[in-house]
Specification:
558 residues, alpha/beta, 3 domains, 20 helices
Length: 558
Amino acid sequence: MAFKTDIEIAREAKKLPIMEIGAKLGIPSEHLLPYGHDKAKVSQEFIKSLAGRPDGKLILVTAINPTPAGEGKTTTTVGLGDGLNRIGKKAVVCIREASLGPNFGMKGGAAGGGYSQVVPMEEMNLHFTGDFHAITSAHNLLSAMIDNHIYWGNSLEIDARRIVWRRVMDMNDRALRDIVVNLGGVSNGFPRQTGFDITVASEVMAILCLSNDLEDLEKRLGDIVVAYTRAKTPIYCRDIKADGAMTVLLKDAMQPNIVQTLENNPAFVHGGPFANIAHGCNSVIATKTALKLGEYVVTEAGFGADLGAEKFFDIKCRKAGLKPSAAVIVATVRAMKMNGGVAKADLGAENVEAVKKGCPNLGRHIGNVKGFGVPVVVAINHFFSDTDAEIAAVKAYVAEQGAEAILCKHWALGSAGIEELAHKVVQMAESGAANFAPLYPDDMPLFQKLETIAKRIYHADAVIADKSIRDQLRVWEAAGYGHLPICVAKTQYSFTTDPTVRGAPTGHTVPVREVRLSAGAGFVVAICGEIMTMPGLPKVPSAEVIRLNADGNVEGLF
């Protein structure tokens, strides 16, 4: 059976002018800054005018640990938004912007798929409205001003060995992970070792996604710790006097972007921190704006629930005062079979026993999300190779976990294929069953917070960290940062720090390689295992097949 590709479907979309999409939410045209005919930014002035309105209900879409079989979390997020609108609810989708790194690497785009997509798909997955470029520029302006301050006499007495602010670019480039800068003699500065992270790992990205407005943004930028003196006194961004200029560069990027689904329903696409190396959620300002404009807001958190959902609850909801009403965990029969030991090449053949064997990964996520006091439903993202017996096995397993699994065919049918899930989500949200609470209190010591995540979410036995790491956490506590949440950077493919371990493992440990203070964003990053904050390209990157065809259209982007 031949299927149209995502990009072919997106290209055939009957898009409405973006002013009409804004009008559906009551946004006056003068408060939309258009980027062409099909995307726009919403003005800060209009957002501030919404303050007195009541909030709609917030629905989180999360997933099992990703597998090469594909799960379709963004596809389900978009489909559910369309499905809620189909059954008469005023629903808004909130998702993240795509990074160029994975687009040209291995993961692909971030606009959904099939008949549950956000459009314009090509622009969303490429330059979009320039937000990531602005973040990259603001981050690297600070980098340049740090080295420039040292070059012109270093009046702040920065210890060049203790500069913690690296550079960023929005591309997977392993060659830049560890470099030496300022070579070439006296006129170029003092040589030192540094490196690049990918833009989505930048603290500036996290700050933009957690800030409430431009004033909050500038304060948080000023709070960034960029270096230390020989006496280990912190040097802040505001000491370098970069915070004002960085805010200027981010002025437009701070305004949420509005686009549309294939069914002409509104979608906010704004911000994009990775979930495995950052906090994995779209911006607070987009989510809060959507909650003022819609009855239901459907948002997603990156990768599996062990990373994305945990950070959504413990960082984003904690910091922004959000209270989710329900959660959807996306799973596929194919992924269950992979967790049950089936090779990707053999996924087309029925294997009910492998499905049953792989379901504990799903069960672990169900239990974890329930632990936050949020009611859960499982969305089985349907593939044509799924058999009735395999689907029944997943449904039976989920029922044993005290939840319900609903088959969803939104990829092929759009909103018509996800109505049952939409009705279930409304029932859960309207029941008032949610009693959300973060995993740990603010006043718990930092290392204990890390242990709590490792034991309760990853089901590990212990966290392994050198004395230097534990001492560093205590120093930050003494400096007044002990109330911050923990943002764990680890592989998305497993509950462990080993990407090859599938299922629901126990008896493992979580090794912490490094900790970083994100004082402006308001969390402490714990880098675990072999995770890299600058990814590399695979042996055969997607970039090799992306090109313009004879008609001038993009091919190979997915």
